[in-house]
Amino acid sequence: MQIPQIKLTPPLKTVNQSKKLPDVLIYNTPNTNMYSMMTTFMPRLVGTMRAFPVKQGQDKYLRIDLLVIFQKRFGFGTEFLDFARNLSRQYGCEGNIRLKAGTTVYDPTTPPHAFYRKYGFGSDKKRTLRKVDRAIKDNKLLNYKTIPAIEMFYPDNKKQSFLQKLLTKLYL
User: Fold this and answer.
1) pTM score, whole prediction
2) Cα–Cα distance between 46 and 38 in angstroms, integer?
3) Which CATH entry fits the domain spanning 21-95: 3.40.630.30, 3.30.365.10, 3.90.1150.10, 3.30.70.1270?
4) Using one digit for the tens of pLDDT, what is the confidence trace for 126-142?
């Protein structure tokens, strides 16, 4: 039995080997507000997010009503929030984001308040924010028994207005 000979031809266009794939790829499920995150170094789904633009009067923001990270402490949550800020700008929402922190559906052990707070989110619930800030400062974990679900927004308007006041004093 004779083995057939295969003629190989070189590719018409060479691939630039210096171009590296990003660590994560985020893609949108067509005709939905669902976004999924995959890693390129260990091909698997690591998170999912549902986000959509909202306009209420003069207020425009990106509403995140679902953000689930399956593998924590690898920076995937931060990657998703960075993506959400850019998505917010694409929708004309100027980087503004709102979400509700504290649902026990996807992570019954660790409330996400501290993560969002470290990222720069604020809330009108000052008492709860003080608890979150204290836990961050003391490097303690929060739990659902002591921390309620709260509406959070990015950027933290309090920090933003403080900076605006400071700049106004410096330049006027």
Assistant:
1) 0.78
2) 6
3) 3.40.630.30
4) 999 999 999 999 999 88
